[in-house]
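Long-time lurker, finally posting.

We've been working with 17.6 kDa class I heat shock protein (Medicago truncatula) and I want a structural starting point before designing mutants. I don't trust myself to interpret raw outputs, so I'm hoping someone here can both generate the structure tokens and explain anything notable. Sequence follows.
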Amino acid sequence: MSLIPSFFGGRQNNVFDPFSMDIWDPLQGFPSSARETTALANTRVDWKETQEAHVFSVDLPGLKKEEVKVEIEDGNVLQISGERNKEQEEKDDKWHRVERSSGKFMRRFRLPENVKMDQVKAGMENGVLTVTVPKEEEKKSEVKSIEISG
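Top reply, 14 upvotes:
Generated this for you. Predicted structure of 17.6 kDa class I heat shock protein:
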């Protein structure tokens, strides 16, 4: 275990990922009114590439599909956003612990050029949003044999 605190809040993603457009929240982990901004950093996304598509799986427990937006910006940026609402406090409530994040969240990913932006599909089941971005078929290079004269 390191004695040096992580400047990146213990996040396990690749800071140097050229496609990631994450916004780092320097206030993450600090108890303050800025706690609502941690929903942005706590939204976990898996991105895998298959032969046919790029597939994004986003953990959004407790959210309905109507509370989430999936958009394409500037032709090649996938943006997933929404808002987790705070639970209403009643006069006689006594909270012992609040760990679930609330507030707005947004994740952005720059997509490679080999995708079919007009065929993006999104679905939500059991608190997991799945966004599928189909890839264009790779053009196979044609090899042509040339006779050597002489």
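Before you design anything, note these points.
The domain at 33-86+99-134 is CATH 2.60.40.790 (Immunoglobulin-like).
The first strand starts at residue 45 and ends at 49.
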